[in-house]
Write a structure and sequence with these properties.
The chain has 198 residues and is an alpha/beta fold. The chain is globular, with a radius of gyration of 16 Å. 38% of the residues lie in helices and 15% in strands. The chain has a 6-stranded parallel beta sheet with strand order 3-4-5-6-7-8. A two-stranded parallel sheet has the order 1-2. It has 7 helices and 8 strands.
Length: 198
Amino acid sequence: MNLPETYLNFHTHSPLASGEETIPSFGLHPWYLSDRWQEELDEIVQNRDCSARFLIGECGLDRVCTTPYDRQLSAFEAQIALSEQWQRPLVLHCVRALDDVLRLKRGTHQPWIYHGFRGKPQQLEQLLAHGFYVSFGFQHHAESLRICPAERLFLETDDRPEPIAPLYEQVAHQRKTTTAALREQLWHNVERIFQSVF
C-alpha cells in the first residue's frame, strides 16, 4: 500500500499548508443549525459524489451553545442515519453531552471520530471502550495523548490557522516516536476507517 508522504490534517477550517492533506467532510455543525436544517441537509445530500472519500460532520451536540437542544438532537440523529446509509465515518462535536452521544452511538456500525479532544484519561478510556477514534489538536491533555492507542489516533489544527507539522513534532516527542512513523500511522488509520467502503 502506497501511503501519502504528507501530513494528514484530520480536521481543519483553514487553508492547508504546503505538504498537508485532509479528508473532506460535509455536515451541519450544532452551533449553526437554523430551523430549516433539514432542507440544508437535503442540499448536502443532493450534491455529494458517493464514489468519493469523505466524512460526515462535523456534527453533534453542544449544551453550551444557543441552538435549541431538541433541534441539535434531531439534526444529529439525521446525520448519524446518513453516516450509516452512506457508510462514511462521522466527525463528532461534543460539549457536555457525552451521555447522549454514547447512547446514540450504540447500534451504529460506522467509525466515529471525536474531534478536538481535550479530556482526561478517564474520558479517553470511556470513548475507546465505545469504539471511538480520537483527534487531538494543539490544546490537549498530555497524558491522554500519550496513552491513546496509535491505531485510534488522529491530529488536527481545527480553527487554528497554522501548519500542522509542529504538532506532529510535539506529539512524536511526547509519544517517543518519529514524525515519519506518526505520519504513516495516521494514514493507516484513514485506510482503516474507510475499509468498509473502499
